[in-house]
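=== RUN LOG ===
request id: a7f3
mode: sequence -> structure
chains: 1
length: 243
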Amino acid sequence: MPSESLRPRLNNPEAYRRCEEVDLLDALLDARGRRILELGCGSAWMTRQLVERCGAAQVTATEVDRIQHDKNLAIQDLPQVCFRLGGAEAIADPDASYERVCLFKSLHHVPIELMDQALREIHRVLAPGGLLYVSEPVYWGPFNELMRLIHDEREARLAAFESLMRALESGLFRLEREVFYQSEGLYRDWESFAARFIHVTHSQRATDSERLAVIRAAFERHLGPEGARFLKPHRVDLLRRLP
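=== RESULT ===
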């Protein structure tokens, strides 16, 4: 949700490339052999891609949801990864500890009043010249219309964008690349969709039976023979840390 001048581009399907984020990440980040910090790692799917696909040498993956963090600690086949409980606004590392920092759709989950502090912390732990990769969902399109019935993130996403702009204007970072892409999401039935987006441990959803019925009806309008298929729009900002 950027400034009004960018809205025509954000809401224009032709402005988006069609790809999966891991393909974009591999092309943009130059992660091979690097020390990487991932903030808000969730179930560690992208953490695994950083190691196995992108060749990161060492990843510190943080998560604020203690239940999910405990699940991540049970992962046995990622010796290059250190899982840590904590948020982006207070990073438990010395200055210039990392060559890359990644936030995969997690900046808008930082409390709004702490977003600027989080970006200052990221600047602190990035080595000079290091890269910050931020992907955020775009507030537009059929998938967004469905998700806003569960939790409307308009305010948080706008705040995340504005916080990034302040970090650029203040001289913490320089914008290297801006990419818009759409990835495909396929959910075979209501149960799998609800497990992914409603019955989660990291958020409290105010979803009584009446509200669930509304969300389910909206979801099932998209069902086809293989399930409900969506194109999900995203924006990626690649920033370089300035001295």
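=== NOTES ===
The chain has one domain: 4-139+152-183+234-241.
The two ends are 28 Å apart (CA to CA).
=== END ===
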